[in-house]
Design brief:
Strand content: 5-15%
Shape: globular
Number of strands: 10
Length: about 475
């Protein structure tokens, strides 16, 4: 569980979240503890009076702080790039405050707090003060990040292509938390390269060691020195293990069939399969009931907007390569693929209808896929279902591409919440690194976390076309 959470949220983001949760609690508690505030919030009904004595300021403050914090995390306020870019921080924090309001109302209702004018005004003040505190804490955090308190230096050993590849991975996303260096230098010896030793690593502030090499290469590495460093507490990784544990992906250039064969994961028992299927049925049924009015409205708009059927049916590749018919609201014109040649969607695609330009970025066109989930053809969480034409094409070019079909395709997935929409072979390759990570590490907890992260993707239209 800790490993899964760690891959969704980095260490410094987890620390920031805990600090802001504590700050939120103190602020809310201070506001609720003011004389006469709490009694005024409790309903005058007999049920409210009955629970008034049991209503604890500490408990209520803790629940409200946790509710606001979870809402903020769900829309991506604890992603590192949000902290760095102030404009995105203000937008995300504002959206978090807006979405937290109904969540807070639901939670306070369980404490028999009515929707009085006094209660609404107080909760609004709580969210505004929380927003100010969050922005202030991020200013301090950015200062800390500029001082490189959380940067981890890693010593990279191996072949030149492997070292270059790892350096590239460390320039974006979560990889920016690491600073790759090649050879530790002894400052006391005039900057001369020294043999690998625990003392040299400690002197240079090296956090860990990564051995990066191509599968076909067998470069000599100082095994005894590496073992000594590891036994003294320095983390030692191969390239694939480092990418998996700290970047949330499986680097296709750094793995080979033997690694996939003997690595842990890539397995699921009967109990986990039953639990996942139950999860799929419960979530898809709930979403179908909640979105039924919206789906009826969209169906009518699609019918009015352009000529053609409301639902678009298309062959996709499912579990173990078996084809199935995927359902979507039609968002393109009837002649979108003239001559029957499959094409990827592009930015500002002229084939998209007026209704399609709205429902595609919001992922509303994918709601009928909930029926595919109920049928058992898809899962809520899994790799994106591709068309057989593209699967055959990509499997010839990209190694291990067919391995993604060992789990059911999903409406959303690890690749979808970590990488934008792909419309090229290179995009497919990058997304496969995340899909393989999910195939290897899938669990019910990871499914829940991906489902929560999908809220952020939908709200901010990340990678939509």
């Amino acid at each position: 569980m800790t490993r899964v959470l760690g891959r969704l949220m980095s260490l410094e983001m987890a620390l920031l979240g805990l600090c802001e949760l504590a700050l939120s609690f103190l602020v809310i508690y201070g506001m609720l503890a003011m004389p006469g505030v709490l009694p005024a919030l409790v309903e005058a009904s007999s049920a409210g009076a009955k629970h008034a004595a049991a209503l604890d300021t500490v408990t209520l403050a803790a629940v409200l702080a946790l509710t606001i914090g979870c809402t903020a995390a769900a829309i991506g306020l604890y992603r590192r790039e949000i902290c760095i870019e102030r404009r995105r921080l203000l937008i995300n924090a504002g959206v978090a405050g807006i979405l937290a309001f109904p969540a807070v109302l639901v939670v306070t209702g369980s404490f028999h707090i009515g929707l009085s004018r006094h209660a609404v005004v107080l909760l609004t003040k709580v969210l505004v003060v929380w927003l100010v505190c969050i922005v202030a804490s991020r200013v301090i955090f950015n200062r800390i990040m500029r001082d490189r308190w959380f940067i981890r230096r890693i010593l990279v050993l191996g072949s030149a292509p492997g070292i270059a590849r790892l350096r590239l991975l460390a320039t974006g996303g979560r990889g920016r938390l690491f600073e790759p260096v090649t050879v530790p230098r002894d400052a006391g010896a005039g900057g001369v390269d020294q043999p690998l030793s625990w003392a040299a690593l400690r002197h240079q502030g090296i956090w860990g060691i990564v051995v990066a090499r191509d599968p076909a290469d067998t470069p000599t590495v100082p095994v005894n020195a590496l073992l000594d460093c590891k036994l003294r507490g320095v983390p030692v990784f191969d390239e694939a293990g480092f990418c998996e544990q700290h970047l949330g992906r499986i680097d296709l250039d750094g793995v080979h069939a033997d690694w996939l064969l003997f690595a842990d994961g890539f397995a699921s028992g009967r109990a986990s399969n039953v639990a996942k299927r139950a999860f799929d049925i419960c979530v898809s049924l709930a979403l179908l009931l909640l979105t039924l009015p919206l789906m009826l409205l969209i169906a009518a708009l699609v019918r009015i907007d352009s000529v053609g059927p409301v639902l678009y049916r298309q062959q996709r590749t499912g579990l173990h390569g078996r084809p199935f018919t995927l359902l979507k609201f039609r968002s393109m014109t009837m002649d979108a693929e003239q001559g029957g040649n499959p094409r990827w969607a592009i930015q500002q695609d002229p084939r998209i209808t007026r209704v399609g330009s709205f429902i595609r970025p919001m992922r509303i066109d994918e709601l009928p896929q909930l029926i595919n989930v109920l049928r058992g053809e898809m899962s809520m969480i899994g790799p994106r279902p591709e068309r057989p034409h593209f699967v055959e094409q990509l499997a010839r070019i990209i190694p291990f591409y067919n391995e993604r079909s060992y789990v059911k395709p999903g409406i959303t997935g690890w690749a979808q919440v970590n990488y934008p929409y792909g419309a090229s072979v290179e995009d497919a390759r990058q997304k496969l690194s995340y899909d393989l990570y999910y195939v290897k590490n899938r669990s019910l907890l990871l499914d829940v976390l991906i489902l929560i992260a999908t809220i952020r993707v939908i709200l901010f239209r990340e990678g939509a076309r």
